[in-house]
Structures are given as structure tokens and as C-alpha cells.
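Can anyone check this?
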Amino acid sequence: KTGIPVSGQLNASFSAASDNVRVQNSYLALPHTRLDLEGDLTKNLHLALKSRDLNDVLAATTVSRDTVTLNQGVLTFDGNVAGGLRSPRLSGHLGATNLAVEGRRFDSVVADLAASPSGATVSNGAISRAGDGSGMRAQFSASAALANWKLPPSAPIRAALTINPADLADLAALAGQKDGGYSGPVTVAAHVTGTAGNPLDATYVVAVTLP
């Protein structure tokens, strides 16, 4: 009674000659979310995800349903999985419109994602918010080495973030902090390199101007 209904359809055919599983016209559906699958399981499988309510997905995680919401917006992911089940490589484009984080609304979030057993990257990331005279534009990228999908303390990491301009309340929301009643224009430029367990080799340049 408290669960989320799930339905789907899987159409697959196996070819012994090519040792390949062909997936066609298959999908997984929740009340406001749908994942379509098409392609070769051992070569290239196309994924298309579309959601109008993140509660469908967040119900399977420890993230609070109030942390990230869609205000009549849409989240999409269009990507591919290559390399088969033994060494899968995921790549694709993530996008969201009318997203709210800790009650703070953002007009759009986009990023290109790539992940494999040996590493993960986020590139061409951008967050925008028009606001009422307090617009925001942020660009970000990050990468990390993985060991069989795990992030060991010795793994090299790299991240970059630029925000110009933004409201202090926007940054607090993106950092997972609830509205504290503070505000003010902020410009941020940050670059981090190091390891997951000890990101000491880092530089931060932050300019803050409060009214």
C-alpha cells in the first residue's frame, strides 16, 4: 500500500552465433517515470529516461524527497551502455528543468556524464537560474579514478566550478543547507586536484560582496 507501482516489458532475442542479446521495444515504467531500452546488450544499449516526479526514483535511495523536487519540470537522460556486462561503459547527457533544491528553484541543470569500472567524469555541467534580479550561471566539471566502480582514498580526483553571479542562498541550497534567511551577490572560482582521501593540492578563489 505504501509502495510505488512498477510495470514494464522486455523483448529480447539471443544469437548464439554472435553471442549477443538484442533488446527491442523494451521499457520500465513508474507512475511519473519511464526508462526505454533498445540495442545490443554486449555491444551498445541505448537508454532513454524521462521523469516528471523524482519521488519515483528517490524512493529507492536514502535522499529525502524534499531535498530535490521538480516543479512542473522534467528530468531526462539520453545515453548508451557499451562494453557488455563484464566491462560496461556508460555515457550520456543529463538535463533537468524547473528543479528545486532545498526549496530553491533553478531553471535548468545539464551535464554530460561518463562512467566505467575505472573512472567517472562530469563535463559541460551548467546550472542556471533567472530569478528576480538575482540570476545565476554556474559551470562545473569533475573526474575521479575508480577501482571496480569503487572510489578508493588514493584515487585521483579533479573538479572545477565557476559561478558568476549568484545569490548566497543559491550556494547554500546546492550545498544541501536549508534557507537561513541570508542573501547577497557572490562570485566563485574553485579548482580542486588531489586524491579522494586527501585533496590537499587545491586552490580556491572566492569573491563575496554583501549588501
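Reply from J.R.: I decoded it. The helical segments are 55-58, 168-174.
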